Amino acid sequence: MTSTFTALLCLGALCRTPASDSLTEILSKPIIWAKPNFMIPKGRPVKILCQGIPEATEYQLYFEGRLSAWQSPRQPGIRNIVSFPISAMTLLTAGQYRCIYRSGELWSNPSDPLDLVVTEMYDTPTLSVHPRPEVSSGDNVTFYCRLETATNMFFLLKEGRSSRPQPRYGNTQVGFPVGPVSTAHRGTYRCFGSYNNHAWSFPSEPVKLLVTEDAGDTSLAPTEHTSFSDSWDPHLLTTNTEVQQDPALWNHTAQNLLRMGLAFLVLVVLGYLLTEGWNRASSQEHRRRFRTQ
């Protein structure tokens, strides 16, 4: 019976069991993300967004496996998105979130986990890069993050990247080896200290890594050892600014212009030589005819 139908969902410690096995369709999982970012300074607001199929009529948000909030979309349609606002980020709101949605009598699979982090909870660490911040493509570098007050975990992030932060366990200092580096590793890095995955320190001062490109270097992808998160300010580094500031790209442009200029000069010289040859041949033919007359 429709009135007695309940959805099947196992999310952490929470499970719902259907009263009937006649419905076997499973809805696709929704998409979940945080705005402005998954790293929020304590006391700042954040929104958790969840998007399902256009036919979704209800959303539920789960925090650490327990139902936290629910609501219906205001304007169902192609962009079927609901927002779950958090007025002030604290230790109590930092953790892992998932969401689900309902369409008709069916509930979706749970979304991928969203790990919401509160920052500015501890002292500021220091970040340095060795052997130096300016290296050649193919070299290896190590970022060292140090926190005077003992902790148990550190995170390294690169501005503008879209993946998870790179963690290391340690007491007061850890090293993050990166390499062999390529031009894709250029950028600004910061690190955080943490006592758990969801409560981080203030960010370190930024450290810029400059990688000069060697001739014959065609590798533009980071190695599997470097996996970084979204930037705390994703607008600081965009594709356009990378292109404008990449000296290797400017060098290639200058070389192409030089080649085009040389090719044009060669064509001009060849045209001049052909014209001169034709003029001389015409003059000789004219003199020959004049003598025969």
Automatic annotation (TrEMBL):
Choose any GO biological process term that the UniProt entry carries and state it: immune response-regulating signaling pathway
Main subcellular location of this protein, as a coarse class: membrane
- From the Swiss-Prot or TrEMBL record, state where the protein is found: Cell membrane
> Which GO CC terms are listed, alphabetically?
plasma membrane
Keywords, sorted A to Z = Cell membrane, Disulfide bond, Glycoprotein, Immunoglobulin domain, Membrane, Receptor, Repeat, Signal, Transmembrane, Transmembrane helix
- Topology of this chain in the membrane: Single-pass type I membrane protein
Signal sequence range:
1-22
Segments spanning the bilayer are 257-275
User: InterPro entries this protein is in?
Assistant: Ig-like_dom_sf (IPR036179), Ig-like_fold (IPR013783), Ig-like_Receptors_ImmuneReg (IPR050412), Ig_sub (IPR003599), Immunoglobulin_dom (IPR013151)
Tell me yes or no: is Nucleus among this UniProt entry's keywords: no
Q: Which domain of life is it from?
A: Eukaryota
Which part of the chain is the Immunoglobulin domain?
A: 35-119, 130-212
Which Pfam family, any one of them, does this sequence belong to? Answer: ig
Question: Can the keyword DNA-binding be found in this entry's annotation?
Answer: no
Q: Which family does it belong to?
A: Belongs to the natural cytotoxicity receptor (NCR) family.
Please identify the protein, giving its name as recorded: Natural cytotoxicity triggering receptor 1
* Organism in which the protein naturally occurs: Panthera tigris altaica (Siberian tiger)
